Amino acid sequence: MKHIKPVVLLVSVFFFIVLMIPTLLVVSFGDKTDGKLTEKKTSESQKVEMKQTNLGPQIEVAVYRMSTKKVATLPLEEYVVGVVASEMPADFEVEALKAQSLAARTYIVQKMLSGNIGKKLPGGAHVSDTVTHQVYKSADELKVQWQGDYNWKMEKVRKAVQETAGQILTFENQPISAQFFSTSNGYTENSEEYWSNPFPYLQSVESPWDKEAPSFTDQKVVSVKEFEQQLGIKIPTDGSLGKVVARTTGKRIASIEIGGKTLTGKEVREKLDLRSADFNWAKKGNQIVITTKGSGHGVGMSQYGANGMAVEGKSYKQIVEYYYKGVSIALPDQYVSKLTAKQ
Predict the structure, then answer these.
(1) Which of 69, 136, 151, 300 could, after both became Cys, cross-link 179 (CB 3.0–4.6 A)?
(2) What are the pLDDT digits (tens) for 29-78?
(3) Cα 158-163-168 angle, rounded to 5 deg
(4) What CA–CA distances, in Å, run from 289 to 223, 282, 292, 328, 330?
(5) Which residues, in sequence order, are CB contacts of 297 under 8 Å at separation 6+?
(6) Cα(280)–Cα(296) distance, rounded to whole angstroms?
(7) Could you report how far apart the first and last alpha carbons of the chain are, in Å?
């Protein structure tokens, strides 16, 4: 057997390596896919974000700016950022901000689809920027409000909106009326006990987290004269201040008798501009001291309750499913054509 010369051996090895490199590369990458054509698994939030990239520019919200008396038209998701930043404290937990994002987005989508929104607003606006609809502030307004905290607060709000992009709340495949409010008295309210319409997903639930909220209790002092004028009553000569006739499921006052007149808790709240329909009062000299529990109408999601749940580790999905009974989280694909047709 002849010995192979070193030079010949080196050349042979070189050509062998050159020929084998493509094969080795194919085998190497083939091992990662098990020889099959596969797709990268995408999380639900990533799917939502990708779909919203296509949907976002098609849906625009026309907001009537009360201060300038002009209409601002902006993409849906940008509108939601301005609402979340205005309606919920930015120092809340991210999961609570995500829950608020769903409520805010669902609110405007449902209103736009209903066709009965913005009819009294000029310039074809869908909504105003006030509590009549949803409070909305632009980036410039938020910079003034937040000042040195603007960057981190806006980054946090945008994160919450982006991670839920396109998601809305539905009940029986229809967007819900996503009501929300600041602070409960320990319970949310049945919709039919505050408004006339019953909604199966807007039913009373316990909300114990609100007791830690700074606005859980409040006091308001009015003169006896103002009290009588606002309620349209005359305090009896015996000094009694009426009696509670009935309470709602959510422990607020359903009806009260005072000065020979029966009023609903909602009427009293609105006439006296109280924070809540869960109130009590006492006469001290020529003044009436009124104490309330909670802040807001009490229907739907409590914002402080949502934050309390988030602090305990609950996800935004768990939060919205707790406050809105029987709902599903969906993408508004089937509603896009209807919304764009209305614009």
Answers:
(1) 300
(2) 333 333 333 333 444 434 333 333 344 447 899 999 999 999 999 999 99
(3) 105
(4) 9, 5, 10, 44, 47
(5) 179, 181, 189, 194, 277
(6) 16
(7) 89
Q: Tell me if residue 292 falls in helix, strand or coil.
A: strand
DSSP state of 277: S
Q: Is the dihedral of CA 180, 183, 186, 191 positive or negative?
A: negative
Tens of pLDDT, residue by residue over 84-138, are 999 999 999 999 999 999 999 999 999 888 876 666 888 889 999 999 999 999 9
Residue 64: C-alpha distances to residues 79, 121, 139, 196 (Å): 12, 7, 16, 28
CA distance 187 to 204: 6
Using CB atoms within 10 A of its CB, is residue 105 exposed (0-12), middle (13-18) or buried (19+)? buried
Residue 8 Cα distances to 1, 105, 266, angstroms: 16, 74, 99
Q: Report DSSP letters for 209-228, one per residue.
A: GGGGSTTSEEEEEEEHHHHH
pLDDT > 90: percent of the chain: 72
Across 260-322, where does the E strand assignment appear?
A: 261-264, 279-284, 287-293, 301-302
Q: 71, exposed or middle or buried, with CB in 10 Å at 0-12, 13-18, 19+?
A: middle
As given in the structure block, the two tokens for residue 130 are: 């006030």
Q: Which two tokens stand for residue 40?
A: 């990268």
pLDDT, tens digit, 9 for 90 and up, residues 286-337: 999 999 999 999 999 999 999 999 999 999 999 999 999 999 999 866 666 6
51 token code pair: 């779909």
The DSSP bridge partners found for residue 258 are: 261
Pairing outcome for strands 287-293 and 279-284? antiparallel
Q: What does the block give as tokens for 202?
A: 């807007």
| Angstrom distance (rounded) from CA 281 to CA 140 | 42
- Specify the DSSP class assigned to residue 206: B
Closest CA to 172 of 209, 199, 207, 143: 199
Q: What is the pTM of this model?
A: 0.80
